[in-house]
């Protein structure tokens, strides 16, 4: 097969990528530093370089430039984090074949590697889907969990339309799992062995977004649709596209459909999935989104319900997150107290599945022993009990059920002291007198150790 050099200063990720590429039949040289990587490039002159953007001693972009200048026969794949997509696009401009965004599915790594090698004439695009699948610890199916009727309906729609090439519009709040549904559509389709490319439209400035969509430097092959090569393209937050790029995308899709209908063997072949956090139909009626583009994108509309509307899914999700976290930390899964579970099921979860996952991980970090209790949960999750306020007038106040009594009393003391300080224009002496405590007690309850000053 091919000769690969992989440079990543995270040893665990380097080992994982190396094992998978070796299992695909390639010869792999792994390096944990930029200088070692440069030396290996010189000695091996590989068919493909996979390089992380952030390496301790060398900038990944410098390695891309060096490779394209001195070893033009070597294809380059950049690996980057979500916050560095703009820089990854710069790597494409410098000559990188493609980039992978962490965390990436290992199946995508193999597909991108084979695609890069095939384009450079180094190897036939032999996909090792079985090997990739065996290496993946968490499949899409395991991430998309739920027993509610709403989720079961989504499962059924995904099954029905998976092999239909019509565009799919996913609508739903942040954190409901739209990217997981997009991935599930890809994995359930005949395109599953081809690349799955995802782009956050809000992550790039307008000029870079245009290049990422339609190609950089007049090269359409560097655009995301060409790089998908028979696979699926997911454009997230499609509603933020500038008007000018909406017009370009509309024209591009019209031309793509025309080429396909003419049975052009050179036409771009891809399945388009878009997602948004707003009602795109309403946006189009208000003139905020092109109406003709909306109709092209919404052939198969699919709304993902928020977690508060399918609370029956919270328990299996929590169990999955606990199991997943235990696997990642090589430990035994923690249990969860019934009262803590009740709080999780009552909280409205404005951040949806993403917020729930973060709350469970936080609770695991704070929990003593093998069981999560209410006090381990974020305070906002347990502040759910409303009682009549002492001020009357029908007002209510929230009590932080799940906190200890000492924590509650200390918190109320601080609030009362601060309000009394405001009433006395910051005079600590007047405040202590009004509260009937000594100045030393006031300082202690305020957590102040600095030298006391008398205020006039």
Give structural notes.
The chain is built from 21 helices and 14 strands. It has 4 domains: 1-137, 3-Layer(aba) Sandwich (Rossmann fold), CATH 3.40.50.2300; 149-305, Rossmann fold (3-Layer(aba) Sandwich); 308-384, Helicase, Ruva Protein, domain 3 (Orthogonal Bundle), CATH 1.10.8; 404-456, Arc Repressor Mutant, subunit A. Helix 3 runs parallel beside helix 4 and helix 15 (314-328) crosses helix 17. Strand 1, helix 1 and strand 2 (27-31) form a beta-alpha-beta unit. It has helices at 11-23, 34-44, 60-70, 85-94, 106-119, 129-135, 140-143, 149-161, 178-187, 206-214, 224-228, 243-261, 280-285, 291-297, 314-328, 338-346, 352-366, 379-382, 405-423, 428-435, 439-446; strands at 3-7, 27-31, 48-52, 75-81, 98-102, 168-171, 196-200, 232-236, 271-276, 300-303, 335-336, 371-372, 383-388, 396-400. With 456 residues, it is an alpha/beta fold. Residues 124-142 and 450-456 have low confidence and may be disordered. The protein has a 5-stranded parallel β-sheet, sandwiched between helices. A 5-stranded parallel β-sheet has the order 7-8-9-6-10.
Keywords, please?
456 residues, alpha/beta, Rossmann fold, Helicase, Ruva Protein, domain 3, 4 domains, 5-stranded parallel sheet
């Amino acid at each position: 097969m091919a000769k690969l050099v992989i440079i990543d200063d995270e040893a665990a990720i380097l080992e994982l990528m190396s094992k998978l590429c070796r299992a695909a039949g390639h010869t792999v040289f792994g390096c944990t530093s930029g200088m070692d990587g440069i030396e290996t490039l010189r000695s091996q002159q590989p068919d493909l370089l996979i390089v992380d953007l952030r390496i301790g001693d060398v900038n990944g972009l410098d390695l891309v430039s060096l490779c394209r200048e001195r070893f033009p026969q070597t294809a380059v794949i950049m690996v980057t984090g979500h916050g560095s997509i703009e820089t990854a696009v710069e790597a494409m401009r410098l000559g990188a074949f493609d980039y992978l965004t962490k965390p990436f599915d290992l199946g995508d790594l193999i597909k991108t590697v084979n695609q890069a090698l095939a384009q450079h004439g180094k190897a036939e695009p032999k996909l090792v889907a079985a090997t990739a699948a065996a290496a993946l610890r968490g499949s899409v199916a395991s991430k998309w969990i739920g027993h509610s009727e709403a989720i079961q309906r989504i499962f059924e729609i995904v099954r029905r339309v998976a092999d239909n090439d019509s565009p799919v519009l996913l609508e739903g709040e942040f954190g409901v799992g739209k990217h997981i549904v997009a991935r599930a559509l890809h994995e359930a389709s005949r395109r599953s062995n081809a690349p799955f490319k995802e782009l956050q439209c809000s992550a790039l400035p307008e000029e870079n977004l245009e290049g990422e969509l339609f190609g950089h430097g007049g090269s359409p092959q560097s655009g995301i649709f060409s790089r998908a090569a028979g696979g699926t393209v997911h454009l997230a937050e499609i509603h933020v596209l500038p008007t000018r790029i909406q017009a370009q995308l509309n024209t591009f899709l019209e031309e793509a459909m025309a080429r396909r209908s003419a049975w052009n063997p050179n036409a771009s072949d891809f399945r388009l999935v878009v997602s948004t956090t707003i009602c795109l139909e309403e946006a189009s009626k208000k003139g905020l989104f092109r109406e003709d583009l909306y109709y092209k994108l919404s052939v198969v509309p699919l709304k993902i319900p928020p977690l508060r509307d399918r609370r029956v899914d919270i328990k299996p999700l929590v169990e999955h997150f606990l199991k997943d976290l235990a696997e990642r930390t090589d430990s035994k899964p923690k249990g969860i107290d019934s009262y803590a579970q009740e709080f999780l099921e009552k909280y409205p979860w404005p951040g949806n599945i993403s917020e729930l996952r973060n709350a469970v991980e936080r609770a695991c970090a704070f929990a003593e022993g093998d069981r999560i209790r209410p006090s381990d949960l974020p305070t906002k999750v347990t502040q759910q009990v409303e009682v009549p306020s002492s001020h009357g007038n029908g007002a209510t106040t929230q009590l932080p059920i799940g906190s200890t009594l000492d924590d509650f009393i200390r918190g109320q003391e601080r609030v009362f002291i601060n309000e009394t300080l405001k009433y006395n224009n910051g005079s600590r002496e007047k405040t202590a007198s009004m509260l009937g405590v000594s100045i030393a007690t006031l300082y202690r309850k305020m957590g102040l150790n600095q030298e006391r000053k008398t205020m006039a």
